[in-house]
Design a protein that fits this description.
heterodimer; A: 628 residues; alpha+beta; Aldehyde Oxidoreductase, domain 3; Aldehyde Oxidoreductase, domain 4; 3 domains; seven-stranded mixed sheet; five-stranded mixed sheet; 18 helices; 18 strands; 24% helix; B: 340 residues; 2 domains; four-stranded mixed sheet; 24% strand
């Protein structure tokens, strides 16, 4: 095991003289972890603690005719049963917190279950064993329904409906389509010009996040009608939001404590435990714990979704990939959770870290009768990266080229236009390829060794948004009526052509600081910004003529689509061209401390949100005016 | 029947933070009367080290020793809002919020010191060791502790700061997929050496050589921990793990670690890592989150190496011995590809 830092690479973009940053400081929490003193949620002890276990569906898909829990109710150790009717608002979707998608999942199923393990009744008892025994005594009268487990079977017209909120078995995008589209250029035309067509199908099955500490929460009544909840959540306020919504409680009544968690890997975002523990504490007036055992964690805890991918590449003899088309299926399981969002994240990632002039994708978020899937390490990206990188080796073989050379040839570089219509910046794929090859003594040609992420990007077609073919295929519900191919541009419907250059240079960057004192001095942040540097950072310099032209178009063609940006203070002119890079930007040299008084004097005469830019020494990266 | 060696490659990039923005993080910083600083957050430390990285970021920004900073996190009665620890967002979003909060606290620290030293605050700086002094004149100085005491008991001032970082929420175009996703990307490239037993289908990863570009390694040891652990997870994902071995069939469901397989200590391959740092313009000190991307290139590199070893394309995860043997049989025998 060796680790080396290649400080020589990109050295002209960094200052490394810090007191703390870049140094191997010992972890604040490591002594507690090593000595077993760090407080995890399950370390909190309460007198009279109660435990929750759920009655779960043994069927993939079934209607609930009746539940007989009289034996459980008669057990002396059973304190309370929680029925669906006890949950004030028994319908939610996780992403309602960012207003994405419709409520589609009950905390406890009331009319039907859609996966093996879906809970229908929760039992609160004095011990886990007592709760378990009570669960086993419950008799449910099931009417078993036909089920569907394969993502493509689920999209067929006669497939059973998994999720009543989405009767077409797939998430509705933009109130228009049954999938998320990516369209860039004209893949069909490019395929007809390619020397080689390379096609393959890839599949990833679900996997478990497998944290050492299983998911759970302990809730107890506090004073003033408040409930304290110790939780394994990965997202404290996310869990408060979900709990507050399902139980119709304001956040002022919820006191959540967490922060030291035994591994999450994405599986502790879903907030399935906190609502049960808090509701249990409210209904019984006693402390209540709901903690999964390993089997529940493995099978009823949401896994990473299965994914299926078909990729078609058009490559030229010299190794350039000129077109790439994706058809992707994310297996959401029975409910949406976060999968719909993962699809969009994935769409923005395509076609991988390569500059390909024609790209199209259709990605479906599909409901099947299995445990709902959710986030996991690399969410939305891991599966398609597996497909893309296996595909790159197939292309290399087809054109007879070294696989690393092929990647370096097609790699994205600073200034290249990405398929989601924003320019690439801060690229480093080529350098990683070169270093990995060098370390493993994998021989590369001089041409591949001499390439750089900084040079040659954004030249000619590489900076252009090509004329793009768009289609109206895959309208919501159409596939249910009559089967349609899922591949992009596979139908015979009407096509439109979106002309060249309909985008803006619209860099994603943070909100402006509220106050000038919140702005760190740029010299203390470790960025080296010299005069020549602006060439490498296109976003810092005057936009090219092409970009400026697109900028002018933006308000008409795509203005509405982009309108979701930050709300800007009045007087802040979004369309104003960027200030020309004057001496204030290129000097003083970043190594030297900035005389603070010059900064204060200038501030007084300027309007808010204009302070950042012109003030020497203030980071152009985090000030308000950079956000154009 | 033979042990066949293979070598495979893959490279990736990874988006840092919640893809479409709209995910704020807040931080609060305040001083105790003796000049120690508390950073109050609602971040979750899952083992990735946000408490420690946050502490380093705060100490660096304040210009004081790390021992004088303590991070308190995830009590909703005291910590301000944070979206959560996921999507490689913690260091990026919270790091930026901490820089803002600590910058505001630093400005007040220097104002209070200026009053004690009877100089202009704009002429003051910190030495990172607990002292504040006039630029170019280290002898005209006051300690951070004395400054905090003066602020608290004499001047009646707080030394505190607040910070929030919010990437604007981006829409996605229905027809073209146009969007403004995350602002920075980490990168990686990996070469896997492995061997395949063409009789049993078993795979042993023998060596990993990797290059990871992380913007800036804010804490090099934490980065190393993430990359080593992440690559191990990549091996595990590629060759062992699944909750549904015959997906989409639901049979043979594992319920514990006896049946949900992962590589054990004896199966950890030597891993030689090179770390590159190209600071991202909007990231704290340029640092990108290294955690999630670490596993991603390992998986396809293993599939590519298996093809190199025995000529079987493994396009379905996990790549079990069964799948390899079926592939060898379908090809009429194992075929080693060119040596790399």
């Amino acid at each position: 095991m060796t680790v080396e830092f290649r400080k020589d690479i990109f050295a002209n973009e960094r200052n490394d003289d810090f007191d703390q940053i870049g140094h191997a400081r010992i972890r604040q929490d490591i002594e507690g972890h090593v000595r077993g003193r760090s407080p995890f949620y399950d370390d909190h002890q309460f007198e009279g603690l109660l435990h929750v276990r759920c009655v779960r569906s043994p069927h993939h898909h079934a209607r609930i005719r009746a539940i007989n829990a009289s034996a459980a109710e008669a057990m002396p150790d059973v304190v309370r049963l929680i029925w669906p009717g006890d949950i004030p608002k028994n319908m939610n979707t996780l992403l309602s917190l960012i207003d994405f998608g419709r409520d589609d999942e009950p905390l406890l199923a009331e009319r039907k279950v859609s996966y093996v393990g879906e809970p229908v009744l929760a039992i609160v008892a004095t011990s886990v064993l007592a709760a378990q025994k009570a669960v086993e005594s419950v008799v449910v009268d099931w009417e078993v329904l036909p089920h569907v487990l394969d993502v493509e079977e689920a999209l067929k017209p006669n497939a059973p409906v998994v999720n009543d909120e989405y009767p077409n078995n797939c998430f509705d995008y933009h109130d228009r389509y049954d999938h998320q589209k990516l369209r860039f250029g004209d893949v069909k035309e490019a395929f007809s010009q390619a020397d080689h067509i390379v096609e393959a199908e890839y599949q990833m099955s679900p996997i478990e996040q497998a944290p050492v500490e299983t998911c759970g929460a302990i809730a107890a009544p506090e004073t003033n009608g408040r409930i304290v909840c110790y939780t394994s959540t990965q997202a404290l306020f996310f869990s408060i939001g979900v709990t507050g919504k399902l139980l119709e409680l304001p956040s002022s009544r919820l006191h959540f404590i967490g922060g030291t968690v035994g591994g999450g890997f994405g599986g502790k975002v879903d907030s399935q435990h906190e609502p049960f523990a808090v509701l249990g504490a409210m209904l019984t007036g006693r402390p209540v714990k709901y903690m999964w055992d390993r089997a529940e964690e493995m099978q009823y805890g949401a896994p990473r979704s299965g994914e299926r991918w078909r990729i078609r590449d058009g490559a030229m003899r010299d190794g350039r990939i000129i077109a790439r088309s994706f058809t992707g299926f994310f297996d959401a399981g029975a409910y949406t959770r976060l999968t719909s969002y993962g699809v969009q994240k994935c769409t923005g990632h395509l076609p991988g870290p390569y500059t390909i002039p024609n790209v199209a994708s259709n990605i479906f978020c599909v409901y099947t009768n299995r445990t709902p899937s959710t986030a996991m390490r690399g969410f939305g990206i891991t599966g398609v990266d597996f497909a893309i990188e296996c595909q790159m080796d197939r292309v290399a073989e087809a054109v007879g080229m070294d696989p690393i050379e092929l990647r370096i040839l097609n790699a994205y570089r600073d200034g290249d236009m990405k398929a989601h219509r924003r320019p690439a910046k801060n690229c480093a794929l080529i350098e990683c390829c070169q270093v990995a090859a060098q370390k493993s003594e994998w021989r590369l040609s001089p041409a591949a060794i001499s390439r750089s992420s900084i040079e040659g990007g954004g030249e000619g077609w590489r900076a252009e948004i090509p004329e793009t073919v768009v289609d109206g295929e895959g309208g919501i519900g159409n596939r249910k009526r009559q089967w349609q191919d899922t591949e992009p541009l596979s139908g015979t419907g009407i096509r439109r052509r979106v002309p060249v250059g309909t985008s803006t240079d619209h860099p994603a960057t943070g909100n402006a600081p509220q106050h000038e004192d919140m702005v760190a001095e740029v010299a203390r942040l470790g960025f080296k910004i010299d005069a020549g540097h602006s060439v490498q950072r296109p976003s810092l310099s005057e936009p090219s003529e092409g970009l400026r032209h697109r900028h002018a178009n933006a308000e008409t063609s795509f203005g509405r689509a982009l309108g979701a940006g930050p709300s800007l203070p009045s007087g802040y002119d979004r369309t104003r061209p960027p200030a020309s890079p004057g001496p204030a930007r290129s000097s003083p040299p970043a190594n030297e401390p900035i005389p603070a008084h010059s900064r204060h004097e200038r501030d007084k005469s300027e309007k808010p949100f204009q302070r950042g830019v012109k003030r020497p020494g203030v980071s152009p990266f985090i000030s308000g005016t950079r956000r154009r | 029947m033979a042990i066949r060696k293979g070598r495979g490659f893959a490279c990736i990039n990874y988006p840092i933070g919640m893809n479409l923005g709209g995910d704020p993080s807040q931080a609060l910083v305040h001083s105790t009367p003796d000049g120690k600083f508390k950073v109050t957050l609602s971040s979750i430390d899952l083992g990735q080290g946000i408490k420690s990285v946050g502490r380093q970021i705060a100490a660096e920004t304040l210009g004081i020793p790390i021992e004088d900073v303590y991070v308190d996190t995830a009590d909703s009665d005291t910590g301000p809002h944070d979206m959560g620890s996921f999507a490689s967002r913690g260091t990026h979003r919270m790091g930026n919020a901490i820089i803002r909060a600590a910058s505001e606290a630093r400005a007040q620290l220097l104002e209070s010191a200026a009053e004690e030293l009877e100089v202009d605050a704009r002429d003051l700086t910190t030495d990172g060791k607990g002292n504040i002094h006039v630029r170019g004149a280290p002898s005209r100085s006051i300690t951070v502790e004395e400054t905090a005491q003066a602020a608290q008991f004499k001047q009646g001032r707080t030394l505190a700061g607040r910070g929030i970082f919010l990437g604007p929420l981006s829409d996605v175009d229905a027809d073209t997929g146009e969007m403004t996703p995350v602002s920075c990307f980490a990168h990686a490239a990996i070469v896997i050496d492995l061997q395949v037993d063409d009789e049993t289908g078993e795979v042993e990863v023998t060596q990993i050589n990797s290059a990871y570009e992380v913007g800036r390694a804010l804490n090099p040891k934490l980065v190393e921990q993430q990359l080593v652990g992440g690559a191990w997870m990549g091996v595990s994902h590629a060759l062992y793990e699944t909750t549904e071995p015959y997906y989409p069939d639901r049979s043979h469901r594992p319920l514990d670690y006896n049946t949900y397989l992962m590589p054990g200590p004896g199966q950890i391959a030597p891993h030689h890592i090179s770390i590159l740092e190209r600071p991202a313009p909007d990231a704290p000190f340029g640092g990108k989150g290294p955690g999630e991307m670490a596993a991603n290139p390992v998986i396809p590199a293993i599939a590519n190496a298996i093809y190199n070893a025995v000529g079987v394309r493994c396009d379905s995860l996990p790549i079990t011995p069964e799948k390899i043997l079926r592939g060898i049989r379908a090809n009429g025998g194992a075929v080693s590809r060119e040596e790399r």
